[in-house]
Amino acid sequence: MGLFDRFRNRRPGTGRRATPADTDHLRNWAAQRRGVEGYLEPQTLVTETTLLLIAHDGEWTRRRVESPSAAGRFTRRLGIPLYEVAKVGYPQRMRDYQARQRILRKRAQRAADERP
């Protein structure tokens, strides 16, 4: 067995496939928030194609979708714009949201550590 033989038969995105539960989660999440935009993440060696939904405040969720065209149909049905992450990148508001959440988690952890 060669050094890289175990990688030869590996197909991109051989993990879990998209399910109706994924679509339901995305639909419900978008319905409960405003200013939602969709960001298409391409298939990788580890995951299938994913759709990232980002709200106006940077809150986000990600789920697998069947294909890029399925993501397009989904976002058109919901009336939200769809962007390709590979072309436009992630929006700053998402990074800002992540930074705020990190600060809040650290504060909560410090408060929990200081309790007797």
Radius of gyration: 18 Å
The biggest sheet amounts to: 4 strands, mixed
Strand line-up in the sheet with most strands: 3-2-1-4
**Count of domains:** 1
Outline: elongated
Please state the average pLDDT score. Answer: 89
The count of strands amounts to: 4
- Helical segment count: 5
How far from one another are the termini? Answer: 57 Å
Question: Which regions have little confidence, pLDDT < 50, spanning 5+ residues?
Answer: none
The SSE string, one letter per element, is HHEEEHEHH
**Helix share, percent:** 40-55%
Which class of secondary structure composition applies to the elements? alpha+beta
Beta-strand percent range: 15-25%
Protein name: Oxidoreductase
Region (Disordered): 1-23
Organism: Saccharopolyspora karakumensis
Summarize the structure.
47% of the residues lie in helices and 16% in strands.
Layout of helices and strands:
Blueprint: H1 5-8, H2 20-31, E1 37-41, E2 50-54, E3 60-64, H3 68-78, E4 82-84, H4 85-88, H5 92-114
Parallel strand pairs: 1-4
Antiparallel strand pairs: 1-2, 2-3
Organism: Saccharopolyspora karakumensis
Region (Disordered): 1-23
Protein name: Oxidoreductase
